[in-house]
Amino acid sequence: MASRSDIETYLGALLDVGKFRDYGPNGLQVEGKPEVKKLVSGVTASRAFIEAAIEQQADAVIVHHGLFWRGHDGRLTGWLKARVELLMAHGINLYAYHLPLDAHPELGNNAQLGAKLKLVPDGRFGEQDIGFIGAPVQPLTTAALKAMLTYRLGREPVMVEGRPGVTLQRIAWCTGGAQGYFESAIAAGAEAYITGEISEPQAHLARETGVSFFACGHHATERYGAPALGAHVAEKFGLEHQFIEIDNPA
After folding, report:
1. Of 57, 48, 59, which Cα lies nearest the Cα of 83?
2. What distances in angstroms separate CA 219 from CA 18, 32, 76, 183, one per listed residue?
3. Biggest distance spanned by C-alpha atoms of the chain
C-alpha cells in the first residue's frame, strides 16, 4: 500500500515533470482514495478504460492521455462529466503524464518503442528533445524496417519511401502525433523517421529529401510507456499492477 501523495511526488521527480512545457497538466488530475493498493495503467483515460479499471478494483490509474488539455473551457459536461463521475464515484486516482512519459530515457514511450524495434538511441532531437535518434542493431533496408514495424506493432504502417533500396543506419523516432518533428529528424541526420501519424506535407518532404517516413499509428506507438511506468511504480511501492489495453485504430 502507498499513499496517493507519495506516488505523485515520486512520479513528478522520476519523470522530471517541471522540465516540460506541455499541452495539459501532468500529475494527479482526479483525486481519489488516499491509499493505493492496486494500480492500473493504460494509454488513454477513455470511458472504456475507466470502466475496465473499475472492474479490476483499481485504486489508481496511470495514463499517457489524461482528461484535461490546453484550450479546455473547464466545464464538466457530456463525455467528460461521465468519465470524471465514474472515477469519483469509485474513488479512483487518475495520474496522467504526457510529454514527460514520451521523453523518459528508460520507461518512456520512445525508449520502450526503440527497445521493441531494437534501435539503440544515441541522441535526441526536436522541441524539448522529445525525439530519439540512433542506429538499428543491424542495418535495415526500408522494406525490412516496414516488415519489422508490421510484425512488432501488429499493423502495417503507412510508408513514404525516400530512397528505394537504401540501407538504413540512422533512424529517428517519436511516438504519437509527432509528424511535425520530421524536419528536425532530417536535420539530425536521420535516413528514416518513425512516428504515429502523417499529415499532407510529410509525403512531399520524404520524396524530396530522400528520408523515408513511417506512420505506424498514434495508439500503436504509444502503448508501451504506460505499462512500463506502471510496473515500475508497482515494484517501487509494493503494489499490484495491471495494464489494460483498449484497442484504438488511430
Report:
1. 48
2. 25, 27, 25, 22
3. 57
